Amino acid sequence: MLQEFKDFIAKGNVMDLAVGIIIGAAFTAIVSSLVSDLINPIIGLVLGGADFTSLYVALSGDVPAGVGLDAARETGAAIFAYGAFITACINFLIIAFVVFMLVKAVNKLKSAAESPQEVAPEVDTGPSELDVLLQIRDSLAKK
C-alpha cells in the first residue's frame, strides 16, 4: 500500500497539480496586492478619496459615522460590506483574465508543437552519382 501511494505521488499529474496550487497561491497574493495597492486607490480617487475596500452600509445597530469597516464590525452591527465584495470581484476578474491568457498561450504552443514541421523545398543539386554512372554506362554501350 505504501508503494502504491509513492507511485501515486510520483505521477506527473499529482506533481503538476501541487506545483499549480503553489504557483496559484503566490499569484493570488500578487493579484491581491495589485488590486488593493494599485487599483483600489485609483477607484478611491474617483469615488472622492474613500478607501474602496472599507465601503459599507450599516444595516442595523449603532455605528458611529465615519468609522472604518473593522471598527463597524466590532460594534456587532449588521454590516453590508460591498467594498470588500467588489474588491474580491476585481481580484477574480484579473485572475481569470491572466489564466485565460496563460491557457491561450499554452494552447498555441501545443498546437505549434503538434503541427507537422514544414518541409524545406528540395534544392536541385544536379544528378546523383548513380545518375552519372548510368549515363556513362549508356554512352559506352552505344559505342
Give a verbal description of the structure.
The structure is a single chain. The protein has 143 residues and is mainly α. The protein has a single domain, classed as Large-conductance mechanosensitive channel, MscL, domain 1 (Non-ribosomal Peptide Synthetase Peptidyl Carrier Protein, Chain A). It contains five helices and two strands; from the N terminus they run ααβαβαα. It is elongated and about 120 Å long. It starts with a helix and ends with a helix. The model has no long low-confidence stretch (mean pLDDT 80).
Range of helix content: 55-70%
Largest sheet: 2 strands, antiparallel
Number of strands: 2
Q: How far apart are the first and last residues' alpha carbons, in Å?
A: 84 Å
Structural class by SSE content: mainly alpha
In total, the number of domains comes to 1
CATH superfamily: Large-conductance mechanosensitive channel, MscL, domain 1
| The CATH architecture | Orthogonal Bundle
Major beta sheet, strand line-up: 1-2
Residue runs with pLDDT of under 50 for 5 or more positions: none
Radius of gyration: 34 Å
Q: What's the CATH first level? A: Mainly Alpha
Shape: elongated
- Number of helical elements: 5
Secondary-structure element series: HHEHEHH
Strand content: under 5%
Averaging pLDDT over every residue, what do you get?
80
CATH topology: Non-ribosomal Peptide Synthetase Peptidyl Carrier Protein, Chain A
